Amino acid sequence: MIKYESNKHVHALAYQQQKAGKTLCGDSFIMVTTDEYFMCAVSDGLGSGERAFESSSAISGVVSEYHHETIDVLLDRCNHVLKDKRGATVTLFKVDFLKKQFTYSSVGNVRFVLYSPSGTYIYPLPVLGYMSGKPQRYKVNTYSYEKGSKFIVHTDGLKVAAIKSLLKDFYSIEEISNHLEIFTHAKDDDLTYIVGQLF
Questions:
Q1: Per the confidence metrics, is the pTM higher than 0.85?
Q2: Helix, strand, coil share of the chain (percent; to 5)
Q3: Which of 32, 10, 46 is nearest to 155 (CA)?
Q4: Domains recognised in the chain with CATH numbers
Q5: CB-based contact 154:177 (threshold 8 Å)
């Protein structure tokens, strides 16, 4: 499955496929774009199949309803909705177009990298573990970004050694996604990635 989200400030492409033999993907994602901000969440439910989908899709449901709120508030809402579910790893980030900043937080193994035209990378380390409704500590960071910056956020189903160089070496998000296609054939895990560019 491929989905696009775009306006004059952001152009993003999401790709997802489920583990071989499963009818449901245990990963979920959501992208919301307004005139003021771009909100993105990627979650990986523990395990695979129906119960993993139940957990990860609960995250997308929360972000769909409350995307206007801050990352701090969304983190608490996401953690709360996972009570009595299997649990999920979660990455949230929200881009403020006016301030040219994005706020990021992650629990678990959903990775994020941003590459700036000036040659710098931002790849914040997530908090270890996963969300399950239990009391959880978060690390929330806000960064400035340059016009033309490219980013990728992906679950652990995508295994690419030189992911940072992809953002540097390819001009468009479509080119990046086309290159990643060779890594999507090994279907031993659910796989989700979102590549985007900020303007």
A1: yes
A2: 25, 35, 40
A3: 46
A4: 2-198 (3.60.40.10)
A5: no
